[in-house]
Here is the input.
Amino acid sequence: MRKVQWGVLGVARIAATQVIPAMQRGELSEIAGIASRDLAKAQKTAGDLGIPKAYGSYEEMLADPEIEAVYNPLPNHLHVPWSIRAAQAGKHVLCEKPIGMSVAETRELIAARDRTGVTMGEAFMVRTHPQWLRIEELVRAGRLGQFRYAVGSFAYFNVNAANIRNIREYGGGALMDIGCYPVKVSRFVFGEEPVRVAASIDRDPDLGGIDRLTSAILEYPSGPCIFTCTTQAIPNQSMRFFGTKASIEPEVPFNAPKDRPAHIRIDEGAAGVTLEEFPACDQYTIQGDLFSRAIREGDAPPVPLEDALQNMAVIEAIFRAGESGKWEKP
Here is the structure.
């Protein structure tokens, strides 16, 4: 199968340090170009990473007929506008999470996909990692017994006012940046959508009112998922699923290491603990190749926009619940 020729919008850190090198190791993905509004930055990143083409504007890259697909790691407020422009240029689009700033924006993106006929999806790399596929399989097979609840936490420390993650109007804050992960993984492990949510949000007055700590309860038909995310605590990440017979917990749930095996822990109480191991892999490589295969074969991408819409609906409901102090429906 011929490799898909990819272009990258911007020189975001996640793209340069994680996603591009990973996709370059893929069997079906080739990074053919990178664009920046600063040509010198594009040229430097292209040189550092061995990318053949550098563009001094996003428009120039979208006009290149050799670019088939676009990876969009721009700031959150630019996800939908530039993904739509890429689609209008006939490019397939893999857009970073969260897909946009709102449900309404996401609907605009779906409409653009449908008009243009391109393949488009959200870059939730965790959805393609073998450890999460296995957790989903175990839950479906009844290993937990009756599903009861899930608990999660995701945190890092960043109070730099100039950092894009701390600019509210650009989609900064804990919930949009990292809270979207426990929302996403709980939705696909439960295999359900939450019927209502409750939340407590702590906003930082010195950083434009961004949510520096959000705690939420997502009430699924099978039970609640309770999680906290924050941009102002010691770095940590955890996700654990509990049932009547066992609990299941990935060792490193969201940023699974690429240079060593991953593990999930299955605790069955008196029956003992089982540790399952997965060979070292890069979830960004897997994500890129699965998306490229979807383009070539005309299949749905790993995380289609309909799923991204559901995730955004839950995020919006959490924000509403944090303001209202009441249960809110996605």
